[in-house]
Amino acid sequence: MTVVVEPTLPVPPALPELLERDEDGQALGALLWRHGPGWRAVSSAVLGGGIGERSWVMNVQVAHGYTRTDPEAHLAGLARRAGLHGPGVGLMTAADVARRGAASDGGVDAVATAGIDVRGWAAAPGPAVPAPQPPGTINIVVTVPAPLTDAALVNAVATATEAKVQALLDAGHDCSGTPTDAVCVLARTPLPGGAAEPFAGPRSLWGARLARAVHRAVGDALR
User: Fold this and answer.
1) Largest Cα–Cα distance of the chain, in whole Å?
2) Nearest to 184 by CA among 55, 28, 8, 36
3) What is the structure's pLDDT at 133?
4) Is the full-model pTM beyond 0.70?
5) Angle at CA of residue 36, ends 160 and 187, nearest 5°
6) Quick check: 202 and 208 in contact, CB under 8 A?
7) Fewer beta carbons within 10 Å, N or C terminal of the chain?
8) Cβ atoms of residues 217 and 101 within 8 Å
């Protein structure tokens, strides 16, 4: 009899570590996920944005009025300081990351940090704001314990954004977000010859779970 042994994949952390540092005389925090190998991410992050293999995620708190013009290098330096190696994702926010919101639904974990002092509607009149812009103030990190195609990863970002807006409206805020919100969705890397989920819209299996988890996490972070 032939026994087939399935590869053992690392279990994703349900909640991130909270790191603390002193920077320019201020006590600042960072949330760190150490997923390890076997994960792909889609993200709008400053460091490690786009789609690709990622083994860690950091959501770094910076001071209000952040003026550095090298955020990617700044994040990379903080990652090295935390002992991180390999490709990862680095996000920034001026919000207090210790006051994060978190929720789980059917294996999907979502964590959000939110500061909405500067907020508005996406489709607003007026000129664009010249780059670089201040760090994002609503950051969302989602972990999906299933493989997703590239198209489904992009679909997951749209679903997470819809859920974020729903949470803002449910909390009584007349806006769709802030000008610099960021998102990161991680999903399992497909096994060789294995299938990947083609959809992550709000009525798909994993998209529905993602939407509910993000909605609750953002709502929790807004309190």
Assistant:
1) 70
2) 55
3) 59
4) yes
5) 30
6) yes
7) N
8) yes
Amino acid letter, 167:
A
Tens-place pLDDT, residues 104-122: 999 999 999 999 988 999 9
Strand-pair category, 56-61 with 50-53: unpaired
Distance CA 118, CA 177 (A): 9
Q: Classify 16 as helix, strand or coil.
A: coil
Strand spans (E) along 35-164: 39-43, 50-53, 56-61, 88-93, 101-105, 108-114, 138-147
Strand arrangement, sheet containing 56-61 = 17-23, 26-34, 56-61, 88-93
User: Are 140 and 163 contacting, i.e. CB atoms less than 8 angstroms apart?
Assistant: no
Cα separation, 147 vs 160, in Å, equals: 17
Calpha distance 18→166 (Å, rounded): 27
**Number of Cβ atoms within 10 Å of the Cβ of 173:** 15
How far apart are the C-alpha atoms of 167 and 57, rounded to whole Å? 23
Residue type, 175: C
pLDDT, one tens digit per residue, over 112-152 is: 999 998 899 999 887 776 665 555 589 999 999 999 999 99
Q: Given the DSSP bridges, would you call strands 108-114 and 101-105 parallel, antiparallel or unpaired?
A: antiparallel
The helix (H) or strand (E) run that includes residue 28 is: strand 26-34
Omega within 30 of 0 (cis) for the link into 132: yes
CA distance 59 to 33: 9
